[in-house]
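Format notes (please read before filing issues)

Several people have asked whether sequences and structure tokens are stored in separate files. They are not. Every record keeps both together, in the order shown below: the sequence lines, then the token lines. Line labels are part of the format and must not be stripped during preprocessing.
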Amino acid sequence: MKPGIHPKNYRKVVFQDISCDLKFLTRSTLDSKENVKWEDGKEYPLIKVDISSESHPFFTGKTRNLDTEGRIDKFNKKYGKK
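Then the structure lines:
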């Protein structure tokens, strides 16, 4: 393998779909300030996502209404100029 091209912190993390509260353990290089205790008793970094295969209309076959009120304000607060 070529040295220096691969991420060094490839580790187990828990992803949580906040729209349906699904959690799953997988591996990733993403960093997180939050930790969560998993079913095996160990703590892993927690990455929150808005949508996953459990809640996406393509995979579920159901349509759902997103709470769009305030989303622009939320976006501007998070990414807008201060």
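For reference, the curators noted about this record: Residues 71-79 form the longest helix (9 residues). DSSP finds two helices and four strands in the chain.
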